[in-house]
Design brief:
single chain; ten-stranded mixed beta sheet; 219 residues; Alpha-Beta Plaits
């Protein structure tokens, strides 16, 4: 039995933020492998299962738009919370007047992809876990539209609709074109919890397909 799956995802907007943009966000041209993995984990995740992204098919033309929105520049202080527990009178709220700033973002609009992925069993799998069981549960959840939490395209403001893709052929928006997308975020290395490292790869869109099966990952 093949442990692979194809999932169609689509939505109005997407924001796959480039890490080099420190203040105002700017999206990559295409969904990143880590974002695709996050969508699949929102649909189905178990400790004994690890999703691996194989290909991302771009089904609609790449289009950008820009917006400005209010964002909070700070976060609630854990120190203040601990002080309050111990009897301090320090405020536990953020003053919107003082903390909110307006920032611009460059987004993708009207996006649609097909995520082609497979999963592998991990050492955290229970004795009753097996690939066939996981595959059946994944297919059932995709057909019913079930998820643990709503998948999103980079930010919670941009939800991702999803469905099982059961067609044989996958058409793309760029069937006869090759695009160099430069370096793109692949994911993170969590092997050392004290020193989590970002991983990058040289992305190339060939005939509308981002193939990450044999890409060279660098730190």
């Amino acid at each position: 039995m093949s442990m692979g799956v194809r999932v169609r995802v689509w939505g109005d907007y997407a924001l796959f933020s480039r890490p080099e943009m420190k203040v105002e966000r700017c999206s990559y041209d295409v969904m990143t492998p880590s974002a695709a993995k996050g969508i699949l984990e929102a649909i189905y995740w178990r400790p004994g299962l690890n999703w691996i992204i194989d290909r991302i098919y771009v089904r609609k033309p790449i289009q950008f738009t820009s917006i400005r929105r209010n964002e909070v520049k700070s976060k609630a202080s854990a120190f203040n919370a601990l002080s309050a527990i111990n009897g301090s009178t320090k405020p536990l709220y953020l003053s919107s007047k003082a903390e909110i700033v307006q920032r611009g973002s460059v987004l993708l609009k009207d996006v649609e992809y097909v995520i082609e992925a497979h999963f592998e069993m991990t050492q955290k799998a229970n004795a009753s876990d097996n690939p066939g069981k996981f595959k059946d549960m994944i297919m059932r959840r995709l057909r019913r539209g079930e998820c643990y939490h709503m998948p999103c395209f980079g930010c919670r403001e941009f939800p991702a609709n999803f469905a099982l893709f059961e067609e044989t052929e996958i058409s793309t928006a760029y069937p006869n074109e090759t695009r160099d997308l430069s370096y793109m975020l692949y994911g993170f290395d969590y092997s050392d919890p004290e020193n989590i490292q970002p991983l990058f790869f040289r992305a190339e869109l060939k005939n509308g397909v981002l193939d990450v099966r044999n890409c060279e990952v660098i730190r």
